[in-house]
Amino acid sequence: MAAMAERSDWAQLRERRMGELGARDAYQSARLAFELGRSVRELRQRRAWSQAELAAAAGMTQSAVARFEAGGTVPTLPVLERLAEALDADLDVRVIPRPAA
């Protein structure tokens, strides 16, 4: 029963916080960082590379790769290009219109 109360408290707190100035933008940035990191991690794992191996191939440090994969940083386009090149992948950056409401 306590877990249920904690969930509703968390949901209420989240909703209050999302109403604060800049919160939605920050949430979207965090989501983007997480998704980019997950994509790179999945490609790295398919190659059976360690973070250190990817870092060496991309001219980065292992800790920078780890932070990026964890969603802790939003990289610049040149960094994304280096990661994509190291992973023998294409970088596809697009702005897609939203569907009409």
TrEMBL record:
Example of a GO MF term: DNA binding
One cellular component term from this protein's GO annotations in UniProt: cytosol
Keyword vocabulary terms for this entry: DNA-binding
Database matches in InterPro entries: Cro/C1-type_HTH, Lambda_DNA-bd_dom_sf, TransReg_Diox_bact_type
Pfam families, per database record: HTH_31 (PF13560)
Gene3D superfamilies: lambda repressor-like DNA-binding domains (1.10.260.40)
Highest taxon of the lineage: Bacteria
Stretches assigned to the HTH cro/C1-type domain: 40-94
Protein known as: Helix-turn-helix domain
Organism: Frankia torreyi
